[in-house]
Design goal:
The complex is a heterodimer of chains A (723) and B (155). By secondary structure, chain A is of the alpha+beta class. Among the domains of chain A are: 186 residues, Aldehyde oxidase/xanthine dehydrogenase, a/b hammerhead (Aldehyde Oxidoreductase, domain 3, Alpha-Beta Complex), CATH 3.90.1170; 139 residues, 2-Layer Sandwich (Aldehyde Oxidoreductase, domain 4). Helices cover 29% and strands 25% of the residues of chain A. In chain A, the strands form seven sheets. Chain A has a seven-stranded mixed β-sheet with strand order 3-5-1-12-9-10-11, sandwiched between helices. A five-stranded mixed β-sheet of chain A has the order 7-15-14-13-8. Chain A starts with 12 loop residues before the first helix and ends with a helix. Chain B has 155 residues and is of the alpha+beta class. Chain B is built from six helices and five strands; from the N terminus they run E-E-H-E-E-E-H-H-H-H-H. Chain B has a five-stranded mixed β-sheet, with helices on both faces. The longest helix of chain B is centred in the C-terminal third of the chain and has 15 residues. Chain B is globular, with a radius of gyration of 15 Å. Chain B starts with a strand and ends with a helix. The chains are: A alpha+beta (723), B alpha+beta (155). The interface between A and B is large, with 54 and 55 residues.
């Protein structure tokens, strides 16, 4: 019986449940020193002097640095966001370190700062990077330049905004490095150990062969750990220079400022449509606040190139402007551009429907792409699917119209509830990925995946795929990852690509190994053989797969013991329909998510239990984006939502009831796994669905009300409810 | 320095500690109990939850000296004789993903279910666990697992 498609509990769980997982802070080689950073309290300042002498007079303090191999600290003598590192200390333990950090004296000359991207673009605005000549970090144009002036019977213009949020993975970032005189080993809470290795080796002038990067268990990332941060290189450099292990683990408050934030995009749009709701043209200008450094390249470009969503809008054009401000740099966050695009286009669809007094579903249906593959105006080719058919199936499975009738009845009873629907198409998967499938001498198999899972359950999924291909029990396949001593190159877990790119690589490697073992079995048995269920057989007899493997290990047959596969994966496009139900308290503006239903065509589903889990988690992040979370900077450039006490990560109390469904007859991708990816769907689809649900409720009280920016805090909803 | 005697998971320990040493750091760095996770610095996330004299506490907000002459139980302590029904249910219901919050979730639910002595309602479970944050699961699997374990324990 095939394992793929079955809801198998995770092979990863046993050690976590016993407390035996090894996260970064659990790694402490003997003699480990603790590193910490002096960070700027100012959003923008010149660093005049750093005096570490008092701190260094403490014998528990081993070293202090204002520069190390790798990126410069306070580049050009300036800090550009609150929390930017100015100096690094190394001490014998974390308490001595905390004392010493207090004793470093830094003279700053505060400079005028800017936290509003619109103001940052004005003439005379303070410049973050003088040599750049302006605060424009990047511009691009996609699609038709004529879309801005396109003629249509009806035209609607407006502005939409998705706020800045903090990814807030439960494990803060951290890094440990140790140098034994030959090999520099760097453990990091990262999604990209291959990049960490390359950056560290490059900074220290070491060959890659002398640097090993290890990704231990990682307590979540959501895209916030997919760049190589300066701290990772600095800590490795200090360990190399000192010849002693060095560890840095961010405190939560430090992590809030020193780890990339997400989203933070605005859209100015002009949409032309006709009386039936058919959209004739869409023009947009995306302004993305990238913060102090352009670490999150490509986010606004993806948002732009997915702006028409699943709708066939021929006349479309987008301009992109990325703007520097004195904030924490922006980076990828679950969805990375697609949640923004989906929020924008779904808001526009709802507004068009409201303008015409039409059912929002009818407007969407009129515009949905028919006939795939389909290349959108920005060159993105949606691969497979049946959008109109899936929409009709979804409406019935999700009970959308029944929920609307129920909401009417509740309102008649005096209870204000709203129902919101969103449709999305999103782009997942890119680049190459690596897999090694190795036969062990006892006939079990080890799979080394180039992906870098950190909670998704990828090891279970890949084990299912490989066990099916080799026709062996799940228990015979073990999946390992995250160590450049095991696999030298890969990309990693991000962009919903792990099962599609990494799983396909593993599948093809397993297939090749199996073919090689079959050839060896034919040598052993002296005849053509067949294979099934772990057994080769032919006219002269039979051999278990483990017997064949042992024969190769002992030189009695020749054949491969492992297969190394590099798979290049083109992008693929999940599609789906989500419905959110919320209750609004008209007295306080408080919104309670009540119910969430989803129907997704994400290709083959390898493990429904884990795929549902991805939807659950992503949806709650999308709900948080819609209602609770925001990285707020005050006028002085202080991040005032700077820890988990002040920032609204949703708790149990805010979580809705979920009903997750996948398409009964999914449209496969072209990849061997047939999968499309499920990791980011929830975060992409939930925000527009929840926002429409709130608006749907509010419009009963204030018929013209419109939600144009997130989060919909009680204050904002209360204002919407009033004239 | 303060001399403390603490019983942790049934074993006795004596240490001289700084008065400011947090219980979470004591358990991790002195006893080597790595299940105690640190996820914040404001007592919000609950990843460091342990039982102190039978009560669930966030060990990042307790000084080590406050555990003098007390009994501490961590996740390791309830996992010794095989998995507790709660741990099994969490795996079956996919109540963990990255796993960083899991130790604290288990300890809070372990405390709550032992105290409840009956199968609670879903809302009661949600309220009981409000002090533990999870960023991965949307809490769905955790709630299902708690109810499943409760049914096994008291159903």
């Amino acid at each position: 019986m095939r394992l793929v498609g079955r809801p198998i509990p995770r092979v990863e769980d046993a050690r976590i449940l016993r407390g035996r997982a090894t996260y970064l802070d659990d790694i402490e080689p003997p003699g480990t020193l603790h590193a910490g950073f002096v960070r700027s309290p100012y959003p923008h300042a010149r660093v005049l002097r750093v005096d570490m002498s008092d701190a260094l007079s403490d014998p528990r303090v081993i070293a202090g640095y204002t520069s190390l191999p790798g990126p410069p600290m306070a580049p050009g003598g300036k800090v550009r966001f609150q929390g930017e590192a100015v100096a690094m200390l190394v001490a014998v333990d974390r308490y001595a370190l905390a004392d010493a950090l207090e004793r470093v004296v830094v003279d700053y000359e505060p400079l005028p700062h800017v936290v509003d991207p619109a103001k940052a673009l004005e003439e005379g605005a303070p410049l973050l990077h003088e040599e750049n000549g302006s605060n424009v970090a990047h511009t691009a144009r996609y699609g038709s330049p004529d879309a801005a002036g396109a003629a249509a019977p009806r035209v609607l213009e407006g502005e939409l905004r998705v706020q800045r949020v903090v990814p807030a993975a439960m494990e803060p970032r951290g890094v440990v490095a140790a140098y034994d005189g030959h090999t520099l080993t760097v453990w990091s809470s990262t999604q990209v150990p291959y990049d960490v290795r390359k950056e560290v080796a490059g900074a220290l002038g070491l060959p890659l062969s002398r640097v090993r990067a290890v990704q231990p268990d990682v307590g979540g990332a959501f895209g916030s750990k997919l760049i190589v941060y300066p701290e990772e290189v600095w800590v490795a450099a200090a360990a190399y220079l000192l010849g002693r292990p060095v560890k840095w683990v961010a405190t939560r408050s430090e992590d809030f400022r020193a780890t990339t934030h997400g989203r933070d995009m605005g859209l100015a749009f002009r949409v032309g449509f006709d009386g039936s709701g058919r959209v004739r043209s869409l023009w947009g200008r995306i302004t993305c606040d990238v913060g102090a450094y352009h670490w999150g390249e490509g986010l606004s470009d993806i948002a732009a190139r997915m702006l028409t969503g699943p709708y066939d809008i021929r006349e479309a054009g987008v301009e992109v402007v990325d703007v520097y401000t004195n904030k924490t740099p922006l980076g990828a966050y679950r969805g990375a551009g697609r949640p923004e695009a989906t929020f924008f286009v779904e808001r526009i669809m709802d507004m068009v429907a409201d303008e015409l007094g039409l059912d929002p579903v009818e407007v969407r249906r009129a515009n949905l792409v028919r006939g795939l593959p389909y290349t959108n105006p920005f060159g993105m080719t949606y691969d497979t699917g049946d959008y109109t058919g899936t929409l009709e199936a979804a409406l019935s499975r999700l009970g959308y119209y029944e929920l609307l009738r129920w909401a009417d009845e509740e309102w008649a009873r005096g209870r204000l509830v709203g129902v919101g629907l969103s449709i999305y198409v999103e782009v997942t998967t890119f680049g190459f990925e690596t897999a090694i499938v190795r036969a062990e001498p006892d006939g079990s198999f080890t799979v080394v995946t180039g992906t870098t899972p950190h909670g998704q359950g990828v090891a279970t999924g890949i084990a299912q795929i490989v066990a099916d291909e080799l026709e062996v029990p799940l228990e015979s396949v073990r999946v390992v990852w995250g160590d450049t001593a095991l696999v030298q190159d890969g990309i990693g877990t991000m962009g919903s690509r792990s099962i599609t790119a990494g799983g396909s690589a593993a599948l093809l490697a397993a297939r090749r190994l199996r073919e090689g073992l079959k050839a060896a079995a034919e040598q052993l048995l002296g005849s053509p053989v067949q294979y099934s269920g772990g057994r080769f057989w032919g006219p002269n007899g039979e051999a278990q797969i483990g017997d064949v493997v042992r024969a190769i290990y002992r030189g009695r047959a020749s054949g491969p013991l492992e297969a190394y596969e590099v798979y290049n994966a083109r992008s693929t496009y999940p599609f789906g329909v989500h419905v959110a139900v919320v209750e609004v308290d008209p007295e306080t503006g408080h919104v309670r998510p009540v119910l969430y239903r989803s129907y997704d065509d994400a290709g083959e589903i390898v493990n429904p239990l884990l795929a549902e889990g991805q939807i659950h988690g992503g949806v709650l992040q999308g709900v948080g984006q819609a209602l609770y979370e925001e990285a707020v900077y005050d006028g002085e450039g202080n991040l005032i939502t700077a820890n988990l006490a002040l920032y609204g990560v949703p708790t149990f109390a805010e979580a809705p009831r979920y009903e997750v469904r996948f398409a009964e007859r999914p449209h496969r991708s072209e990849h061997p796994t047939g999968t499309k990816g499920v990791g980011e769907i929830g975060a992409i689809a939930a925000t527009p669905a929840v926002v429409r649900a709130v608006e749907h409720a509010v419009r009963r009280v204030r018929p013209g009300a419109r939600a144009t920016s997130t989060p919909l805090t009680p204050e904002k909803v209360w204002m919407m409810l009033r004239p | 320095m303060v001399a403390i005697r603490v019983r942790v998971n049934g074993a006795h320990y004596e240490h001289d500690v700084e008065p400011r040493l947090l219980l979470a750091h004591y358990l991790r760095d002195y006893i080597g109990l790595r299940s105690v996770r640190i996820g914040c610095d404001t007592t919000n996330c609950g990843a460091c939850t342990v039982l102190l004299d039978g009560k669930a506490v966030k060990s990042c907000t307790v000084f080590a000296f406050m555990a003098d002459n007390a009994e501490v139980v961590t996740l390791e302590g309830i996992s010794e004789g095989g998995l507790h029904p709660l741990q099994r249910a969490l795996a079956e219901e996919h109540g963990l993903q990255c796993g960083y919050c899991t130790s604290g979730m288990v300890m809070t639910l372990y405390y709550y279910l032992n105290k409840a002595r009956r199968v609670p309602s879903e809302d009661e479970v949600r309220r009981a666990i409000e002090g533990n944050l999870c960023r991965c699961t949307g809490y769905v699997g955790v709630v299902r697992a708690a109810l499943k374990a409760a049914r096994e324990m008291y159903g």
